[in-house]
Amino acid sequence: MKLSHTADLWWKNAVVYCLDVETFFDANGDGCGDFRGLAQRVGYLDEMGVTCIWLMPFYPTPDRDDGYDITDFYGVDSRLGTGGEFVEFLQVARDRGIRVIADLVVNHTSSRHPWFQSARSSPESPHRDWYVWRDKPPADGPEGVVFPDQEKSLWEYDEQAGQYYLHRFYKHQPDLNVANPAVRDEIMRVLGYWLHLGLSGFRVDAVPFLLETDGALDAEDLPDPHAYLRDLRAYLSRRNGEAVLLGEVNLPYPDTMRFFGDEDGDELTMCFDFIGMQRLYLSLARQQAGPLAEALRERPEQPKDAHWATFVRNHDELTLDKLSEQERQEVFDAFGREPRMQLYGRGLRRRLPPMLDGDPDRIRLVYSLLFSLPGTPVLFYGEEIGMGEELSFEGRNAVRTPMQWSDDDNAGFSTGDPEKLVAPVVQGEYGPSKVNVASHLRDPHSLLSWMKLLIRRYRQCPELAWGRYEVLPHEAEQVLAHRADQDGGTVVALHNFAGEPVEVALRLDGVESGDRLVDLLGDGVTPVGDGRVSLRLDRYGCRWLRVVKPGEVFLP
Ligand code: GLC
């Protein structure tokens, strides 16, 4: 592998950090986070080891779906700052070598978007065909309402238009008609605009729904929707060769693979591994490595320059929709027994630490997995300090509370009136007096310090990001053992899902007598006899080990 490749394909070993500007840091004291505030915190993210910031939607919005309901694709929500302040933030990030990507939400607009206002006003409107209309809601339309607690149908009658329109999500989010070439062109312009301002790509919202044309009247006559995704990617790459599309595709593996495109990966650059994430929780619930190991073995290899994106939590519910009913129930029983913790019958509106009863060993185990499993790790703000959820907030808002910077008023997030904060701060056990950045920064044993170590090691081990992976067979069902090999280097990682210590016997092909295994997350050197080795793990313990040959110098 040439060194230059590793820099060109920067996303392969990136550390992505997702945040919502409005809940990150408020610089002007009005109670709402802003771009000036975020710019002041870029140094914190850089010191942690973050290499790419993913901005959740920051566009003008009536904010009825946390900004995923947009009224102007070319604007900045005035609560968050001006276009100038957005660009200043990009400049500060660039100075630190941090790339920035943003949510691209073009499956739908807000119903208040001027395009929809125009579309509904008259059948003659130039925007009428930018949305999907019907005189009668089709019986054979797309199945599956995404938010079943609030919506009963995918079609809503609009008085003004005298027709029904398609909405995959809330009824205030009418779906754009991507079968219409004018809509496709406009989406390209949206991409072009933000790329030109300095973004390095997009997290593409709801990709399968975006490409869906079942709602279109002449669906059979339409060109392959994947041709559109290919066009989008080609355009993106022409404008900026290093830009990426990170797609939200929550489908079984074989279906997700189609969104990477052909063997060279000409569609999405990265897809989130929703299946691996759900199986990880099943493994945690069962205290057995099996479900996760199975997912890793099943997961198809992505095209050469593409990558999976791994994650533990995000801004939505922890969806368990791809588990069987019985498996989902096991996870509910372990991590969210109470109905108020569950959402839509398929997920949990919780953050990780409270689900694991705040057990520090177990929490560390999970992040060690995140950084050592194959795929680009994506963190959701606050995970690095072990923030908890606030179940008294509605729906998914339970996990969208202000970042906890210190134990000051408003968690140091804002100097504004606590009554006027954009979202209330978490109270109780996970409140800012116990969980905050300032105290984590001071404590070498904090979760944040652990996260920094994991990030440093992950960036130092090209095998983890670039290598060939193998789940290793052994006798201990509570342990996941895997190895990554690249250019003669080998890293082995072990994770114990159970609450008791365990000893694991492994055979490491290609490792010879005289080689040593050097611990990367702690001290320790284990001699290997003839490719065989026995390794001890603490309760919920994890180890990363580098194979070091005789005479080879290892720098920790
Ligand atoms: C995606 C987002 C979610 C949003 C939905 C509609 O699934 O992750 O937060 O509500 O799209 O845009």
UniProtKB/TrEMBL annotation:
InterPro entries: Alpha_amylase, GH, GH13_cat_dom, Glyco_hydro_b, O16G_dom_2, SupH-like_C. Residues 18-420 form the Glycosyl hydrolase family 13 catalytic domain. Its EC number is 3.2.1.1. GO terms for molecular function: alpha-amylase activity; cation binding. It catalyses: Endohydrolysis of (1->4)-alpha-D-glucosidic linkages in polysaccharides containing three or more (1->4)-alpha-linked D-glucose units. Keywords: Carbohydrate metabolism, Glycosidase, Hydrolase. Belongs to the glycosyl hydrolase 13 family. This is Alpha-amylase. It comes from Phytohabitans flavus. The lineage of its organism: Bacteria, Bacillati, Actinomycetota, Actinomycetes, Micromonosporales.
